[in-house]
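Might you be able to review the protein record set out just below?
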Amino acid sequence: MAAELTAEAVQAIRVNTVSLDHAYTLPQEVRVIWPTRWTVPKVLIFAVRYGTIALALLELLWILPRDISEKGCKRIFKIVSLLEVSLSALGEVIIYIRVWAFAGRSRMALYCLSAQFIIVLVICLLLIVRSTSYAMVSTFAPLPGLSCIFQQGGSLYMAMAYVAMLYSVTTLTCVMTIVGMLRYRELGPLGGRRFGIVGQLYRGGLLYFFVLGALCTGNIVSNIAGCVAFTDIHCPCYSRIQIYLHSIIATRITFQLRQFSADGANYSPTHIDIQPASTNSNLGEIRL
């Protein structure tokens, strides 16, 4: 009974977290995102933000007691699996674009980051497909409050996929750290607003690393321990929590940068900027 209550509580917390975050940040989205022209980052932001809401609504289907057939449960499983993979990939694209902009939009950084993203994505897709091939979907669960039970036997494959994700998170953070140190040495403490946007990106990158890195580690440990994925009945499964927080962090960092840029439109420096003008060219190109 305790496991059943824990499963329902964790699922309810996830859905409520997504709903509350969307309601809290909606005014900021309307203010700093809606008026801008349509670009690839803007499309990605909307896809990740509202795709996460769709995933949360689907999760409600098995939080709330409903009479769902086994065919319906399998259909939900396929849609949820597709959404989870798509949202994770799109969220990573946002982070990779932000790191590329942070690195000055250099061609070498573009090639290296693109190659890493494609390699990690292909590895994760192969491992996830292999893992979900062991998935079992059942209905009319004996647990009150749950309509479908999704169980997965290929936990080791999922653990390997999260190792690849952890590698991606770690390398991106190393790039952010190195570039941030170089930019600080270049701009110095007198960099004014030009270092301000570097600070915004730097702080967001560290938050991304600590949160996503911790969740990747938790998923690795839970899957190696043989926990049942796609459900929280036997142990805490952090996969969907990671997807939700990944979406929240990516969108909030973007909103933060947009707000910083909007505030800078009316910025009037109170001191003479003695830094070389050439340093501002790369930072001014950051459009996320």
